[in-house]
Write a structure and sequence with these properties.
The protein has 217 residues and is of the alpha+beta class. It has eight helices and 13 strands. The chain has a single domain, classed as Metallo-beta-lactamase, Chain A. GO terms for molecular function: hydrolase activity; metal ion binding.
Length: 217
Amino acid sequence: MLRYQILPVTDFQQNCSLVWCDQTNEAALIDPGGEIPRLLAAVQQRGLTLKAIWQTHAHIDHAGATGQLAREQGLPIVGPHPDDQFWIDGLPQQSQMFGFPPAEHFTPTRWLQDGDTVQLGQETVQVRHCPGHTPGHVVFYSPTAQRAFVGDVLFAGSIGRTDFPGGNFEQLIASITQRLWPLGDETVFIPGHGPESSFGAERRSNPFVSDAAVRRG
């Protein structure tokens, strides 16, 4: 089974997720935005072996520590989708703009496409390309755990911003309703900020993407 621990990092309280296969103790960090010593301490505390970095998208609060962590620990960077290349290239400028520690740009070891899978120990995790917040945003979905790590696509009671370069509101709504809802109402999602929720709960009450809101739209 895929297990996880949420580790909010940076002043933006971005939910970095430590995920691991409980059969092999092989682990990955999803969106290491900062606070590398704290992240590595969590890995060590659980007796895990860190194997990879998985990246949903390349905004600074999600990717600020990715380049340094990969370089220092010899880790592959998996994701995001190639359409986020311009955000990766701009990480040093993003860090200055938002007052973050200097961030390194990086080249992903593996770009991801919709329908890809990534392996962690004995666990196979599915990839959904969900553009709208950024053009290259991806979501990681574990069918066995019924968990989706959605970055900044969807939040409890809200959705991702679309006013940054490359954002697109209509595209974001389509990503949520066409690529996340089919994963099932019972699926719990871990957003990039704030508390967990389920797709079913958001379909009932989210003012942006509830079934009622989508019908009105």
